[in-house]
């Protein structure tokens, strides 16, 4: 395939100098030879430098941008969380120690947001991943128009949070919404989706489920297609039904992928922001009249950009980070436990 | 010593070779035919996936008054163009679409180029602290965006960048996921011998990147570009903080303005939502297969 590779032996160190970008002129004679020698040396020095330093040049853009817009803000958030900072005068910082965190723990709306984030997270993640698993299993069959089904499953992923939420707000409307109309056909009383505690959380979760189920299904499908065929064949030889094959072959093979999606969905759920913000109609960042669907992300936004307390918003951000680390640690423990058991 | 420059021999067969070899392995799986139940369930799921989008278009083609009646409309009315026009002018949709295209395009291009460079270095080159730096890259994937909004906002306020597009472009111009994705792809799709061969022929690192790495990475670059474009187009949390509806909003920010009741007309809101979604839906019609393939490919390796 690559005939050039054969020549690599032995000459690698000196070869580069002979063939630069521009073809070097070679003149006979001692002066010319000495000059050529010098030139060659210069080239090989340049070449060594190139090999040594280029990797850093290639990774530099990522780390420069990350340092400026990722690492610095991360650390500075920690610093700001120990100060009183207002949005109106972001440069006036007054040291308050841990008071922002203390006030956070006393604030009932923080605990409320934490609880809501948790319940909405569970109500959106669990059905989403279960449905995705089932759909992926079906997509794994040989199908006519399988590409159409896959693309269709992914279209909600391409819909923005804003567009999706605005549509669902309309569909979940109390008086003229489609959902209540359909429930009415089944003889169910109209539900006030926006103002009830549970109902609003279910409605917000529905938006999340709608947007992400197809995406997760494709991830599972990819993992399923990597499962070796002979596992199924031997299971079939042993007399396992399709369902038994699914439970005893597919699911165990998918375990790493399932854990991966659990982690990603959990991270996504902790950061939930756009759906509850816009589900509130014109009500702003409170997450409903009684804060019934205010998430941590929304609470952060409310403290920082509505109530103008940037210091407190920073404290919320760090608290969210700590919660994520905690979840990550729990996940890691579960993974380790699972590895031991297999 | 052969005096070929190495370009023609290295780019041609090797760029497509590994991808073609790998495909059967991923395709290998259970190939049972789906029964009627399979088709029925998948059709239901597809309807559920597409219905809200279709209904957005239906609602956008009606009047606000019609939407405030039961039963809700299930077919198109004649008001679509009027609503689109109102959304276009009142929510500044034209500017917003242009802004979003600029933002998403720049972010996608930047992410692709920078990720390919870094991914190549991590996959194929030797340098000190390589593993430590890669660990750092993966670590940054875990950091939630909320953790940096406050200082970022202070930063752009200090630089007077609020309402300027660079405030949403620069912080997302590189992506840890992209670096990871390209590293995984290149470590398989780009044989080390090809790079060595190019080096033997005297190519500098930049020539190697231009003539060997970029051609070999092209399929993955296309996928990463599309995924990043979709993500940047739909980004919400940071743009809503950095941009306002009166300055230079992205589509998502402009939509929020519609939703917040500056214009309480529901059919106009739906028209705006339609406008903001349509470009990506069109892209899905054209590139759907590649986008699906890209997500599945990223999933197997991630």
UniProtKB/TrEMBL annotation, chain B:
GO terms for biological process: transmembrane transport. The chain crosses the membrane at residues 37-58, 102-123, 132-156, 168-187, 208-233, 268-287. Pfam families: BPD_transp_1 (PF00528). Residues 1-22 are annotated as: Disordered. It is found in: Cell membrane. It comes from the Bacteria. Residues 1-20 have a biased composition (Low complexity). Residues 97-287 form the ABC transmembrane type-1 domain. The keyword Zinc does not apply. It is a multi-pass membrane protein. One of its GO terms (cellular component) is plasma membrane. Belongs to the binding-protein-dependent transport system permease family. This is Sugar ABC transporter permease. It comes from Streptomyces spongiicola. The lineage of its organism: Bacteria, Bacillati, Actinomycetota, Actinomycetes, Kitasatosporales.
């Amino acid at each position: 395939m690559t005939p050039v590779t054969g020549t690599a032996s032995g000459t690698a160190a000196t070869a580069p100098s002979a063939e630069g970008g521009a073809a070097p002129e070679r003149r006979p004679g001692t002066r010319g030879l000495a000059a050529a020698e010098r030139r060659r040396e210069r080239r090989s020095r340049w070449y060594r430098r190139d090999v040594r330093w280029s990797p850093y040049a290639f990774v530099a853009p990522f780390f420069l941008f990350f340092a400026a817009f990722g690492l610095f803000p991360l650390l500075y958030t920690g610093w700001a969380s120990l100060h009183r900072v207002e949005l109106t005068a972001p440069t006036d910082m007054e040291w308050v120690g841990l008071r922002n965190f203390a006030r956070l723990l006393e604030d009932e709306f923080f605990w409320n947001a934490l609880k809501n984030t948790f319940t909405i997270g569970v109500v959106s993640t669990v059905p989403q991943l279960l449905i995705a698993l089932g759909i992926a299993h079906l997509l794994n069959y040989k199908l006519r128009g399988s590409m159409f089904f896959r693309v269709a499953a992914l279209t909600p992923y391409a819909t923005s949070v804003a567009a999706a939420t605005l549509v669902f707000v309309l569909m979940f409307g109390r008086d003229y919404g489609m959902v209540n109309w359909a429930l009415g056909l089944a003889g169910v009383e109209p539900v006030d989706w926006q103002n009830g505690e549970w109902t609003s959380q279910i409605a917000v979760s529905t938006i999340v489920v709608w947007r992400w189920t197809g995406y997760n299904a494709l991830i599972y499908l990819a993992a399923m297609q990597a499962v070796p065929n002979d596992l199924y064949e031997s299971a079939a030889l042993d007399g396992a039904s399709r369902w038994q094959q699914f439970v005893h072959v597919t699911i165990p093979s998918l375990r790493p992928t399932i854990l991966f999606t659990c982690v990603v969905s959990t991270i996504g759920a902790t950061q939930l922001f756009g759906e509850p913000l816009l589900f509130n109609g014109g009500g702003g960042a409170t997450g409903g009249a009684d804060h019934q669907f205010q998430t941590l992300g929304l609470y952060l936004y409310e403290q920082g950009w509505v109530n103008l307390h940037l210091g407190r918003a920073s404290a919320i951000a760090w608290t969210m980070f700590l919660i994520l680390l905690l979840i990550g640690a729990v996940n890691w423990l579960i993974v380790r436990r699972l590895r031991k058991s297999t | 010593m052969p005096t070929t420059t190495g370009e023609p021999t290295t780019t041609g067969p090797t760029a497509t070779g590994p991808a073609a070899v790998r495909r059967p392995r991923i395709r290998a799986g259970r190939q049972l035919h789906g029964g009627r139940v399979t088709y029925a369930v998948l059709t239901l799921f597809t309807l559920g996936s597409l219905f809200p989008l279709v209904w957005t278009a239906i609602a956008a083609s009606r009047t606000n008054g019609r939407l405030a009646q039961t039963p809700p409309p299930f077919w198109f009315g004649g008001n679509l163009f009027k609503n689109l026009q109102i959304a276009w002018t009142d929510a500044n949709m034209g500017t917003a679409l242009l802004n979003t295209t600029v933002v998403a395009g720049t972010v996608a291009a930047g992410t692709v180029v920078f990720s390919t460079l870094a991914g190549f270095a991590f996959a194929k080159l030797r340098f000190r602290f390589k593993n430590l730096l890669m660990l750092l890259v993966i670590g940054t994937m875990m950091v939630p965006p909320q953790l940096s909004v406050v200082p970022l906002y202070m930063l752009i306020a200090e630089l007077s960048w609020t309402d300027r597009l660079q405030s949403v472009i620069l912080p997302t111009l590189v992506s840890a996921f992209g670096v990871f994705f390209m590293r995984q792809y290149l470590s398989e799709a780009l044989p080390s011998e090809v790079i060595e061969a190019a080096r033997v022929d005297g190519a500098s690192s930049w020539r190697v990147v231009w003539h060997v790495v970029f051609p070999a990475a092209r399929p993955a670059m296309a996928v990463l570009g599309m995924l990043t474009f979709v993500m940047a187009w739909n980004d919400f949390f940071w743009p809503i903080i950095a941009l306002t509806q009166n300055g230079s909003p992205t589509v998502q920010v402009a939509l929020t303005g519609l939703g917040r009741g500056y214009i309480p007309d529901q059919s106009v809101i739906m028209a705006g939502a339609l406008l903001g979604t349509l470009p990506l839906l069109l892209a899905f019609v054209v590139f759907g297969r590649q986008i699906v393939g890209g997500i599945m490919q990223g999933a197997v390796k991630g």
